[in-house]
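Re: the request from the purification team.
They wanted to know what the chain is likely to look like in 3D before they choose a buffer screen. I agreed to run a prediction and write the result into the notebook, where they can find it.
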Amino acid sequence: IGYLSTYGGQILAFNWKDLSRKWIFFDNKLVPEFEVSVAATNDMIVGVGKNRKVLGINAEDGKLIWEAPLKKRADVAPVISDSRVWIAATDARLYAFDLKTGQEVWKYEFKGPLHSAPAIVSGRLVLGTDNEGIVCFAGQP
């Protein structure tokens, strides 16, 4: 299954083999526009709206499971690792949300806005920042 977010505020799920549509998520009151790609697991899709909302959507049927607010928007795609979704936002914070509930479980504040997506490799989260350079977090924050 492939997933595509749109400037029109939709997330589409489709079959790669024949390009048939599986489902469409759309709620203009929640998110009028998606500016970045979604992150996906077998069970959950996470999208970040331009209006500072993070949405957890059921991968099977496209139904909204949770939503969480950000203080400012995120200009980069979220990243999922294990039971968390990581979001770098323009409010200079790196957020971790619980993937199943959408509850904020951790955050770290930098000196300036974040404009690059985190990467997770071998249990480490790596992030390029505007002011601190490249940072690396290891272990369980």
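For the purification team: The mean pLDDT is 94.
Please add any questions underneath this entry.
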